[in-house]
Amino acid sequence: MTEHRDSVDIAIIGAGPVGMTLALALAGGPHRLRLIDARRRGAWRSDPRALALAHGTRQVLEGLQAWNLNAATAISSIHVSQHAGFGRTLIDASDYGLPALGYVMRYRELAAALDARLEDSVLLDKCSVLGVDSDGQRAELTLARPDETWRIKAQLVVHAEGTPGNDGAVRVCDYRQHAVVAEVKPTAAHDHRAWERFTSDGPIALLPLGPDYSLVFTVPATRARELLDLDEGAFLGALRIPFAHRLDFIACGPRASFPLALRMRRQLTLGRQVWIGNAAQTLHPVSGQGFNLGLRDAWELADTLRGCAGGDAGDAAGLASYGRRRWIDRSGSAAFTDGIVRAFSNDLAPLRHARGLGLLALELLPPLRHFVARRMIWGARAWP
């Protein structure tokens, strides 16, 4: 085996959208970068997932010249309501002078736009991370590639892939729910309206994607297995019920499911290491906050590193400052999504009535509705 040695200022583990965003935000600055990924470059081309992108995320990507408008489906309005209860509210982009509240884009389209901006020399793909050793002075990564090993010394190691585990450094809340995801074709044009419908099992989101909807159907684990086993007609019938037949569907693509939990790394930094994106936190998909929060992690970390003392990317004071700056947005986003799930995922009559009053208040009190909308668009700080 051939052994390579390298020395950089910042090593970023994970070349997904969050890792690539950080690399692009730091490009042209004083730091030498290395972006490391376990997959071969371009593996994302076969990824069918859809992402909900807030308008604030569009602003970040435009700043990096990585916004693909032709691949994005705009969300002009969001209809929020509950099944078997009164109250609803409508959030509209025109109230904020924006072209859209957000967008829906396939993962592969976003990854392609970011990848096209990367310098070839920055990326080291097909790498397995064998270990990360970190002390107060330096960090060192040991990597394995086909027929070769790499040892990379860095001032700072950024973890931008994976999810927080089940150790004491991570706060975990298992929602005992699964998200069933698919693409469904409506009988009528969606007119760029998204739907968030709350049921006793959990929220259901329909996000416009091209002429169709990207569906996130939240249910208990046993119900998820039942929905996956249904034939297409029966599944669409099950989807019509919580919408009280206000919407109708004529076709459904392949279905998949995954468990839902809140996972929050209590401390974002340790020695000369920092965690961002899904490596720092995973949220419930309600209101589509998770990916946008991760992108804000990357953008604010880049801002911190550009101003680090003496050019040392792993400077302890700078990393501590980054952790403090992210606390409001991270904790606020987690509390926002967690509170919605807990308040709406039940069928208790008093809470059902309270939810209806809350939705009615959002509709009748514009300042309250604007607070919620701005939080979804720009995060806890109405950022950027």
TrEMBL record:
E.C. number(s) listed in UniProt: 1.14.13.-
Keyword annotations: FAD, Flavoprotein, Monooxygenase, Oxidoreductase
Enzyme class at the top of the EC tree: oxidoreductase
Pfam families: FAD_binding_3 (PF01494)
Coiled coil region boundaries: none
Cofactor: FAD
Pathway named in the protein's UniProt entry: Cofactor biosynthesis; ubiquinone biosynthesis
Name the UniProt record assigns to this protein: 2-octaprenyl-6-methoxyphenol hydroxylase
Organism field: Candidatus Accumulibacter adjunctus
Taxonomic lineage of the native organism: Bacteria, Pseudomonadati, Pseudomonadota, Betaproteobacteria, Candidatus Accumulibacter
